[in-house]
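Please annotate the following for my students:
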Amino acid sequence: MKELEDRIREEGTVKAGDVLKVDTFLNHQCDVALFDRMGAEWAEHFKDRPINKILTIEASGIGIACSAARHFGDVPVVFAKKAQSINLEGEQYVTTIYSFTKQREFPVIVAKKFLSADDHVLIIDDFLANGKALGGLLDICDKAGATVEGIGIAVEKGYMGGGDRLRERGYDVDSLAIVESMDPDTGDIEFRA
């Protein structure tokens, strides 16, 4: 998606440790109009899939998942929670993920009443690096018996291999911008052609 690549080039900041900061429009301050156009891109890519639910992880994936849901007939959005709370009741699917950005493991939880074998899921997230967070969401879908119809990613760090490994496993991963390299010294960002 050229518009997203342009925004990353114009407003993104490359930091040491393979960090791409895009908080002006994606994961702190949200450009809702851009999110809507991203949702339209995923809707076009996955238009032949019987998607009836979108799954993401808190917190950065929620905004783009909700915008995308509008393009899939307002299907429900379920987000995996990163902490147990008194509001989570009943049986739950639980797994552990490693967050590249936070550099630590988190439990992720989805109430069983929100995900079942009847669901055809599109997983949406803001970033894909090594694929560990997505692995947790895929594990939850597997435990629920849900069918994963595809994975929509805003920004994939292609050079880290997570997306390519998921594609090799047979998942349809539609990343709107795939970063092939980035340099914290120069700020240069190269995208996959």
About this structure: The chain has a mean pLDDT of 93.
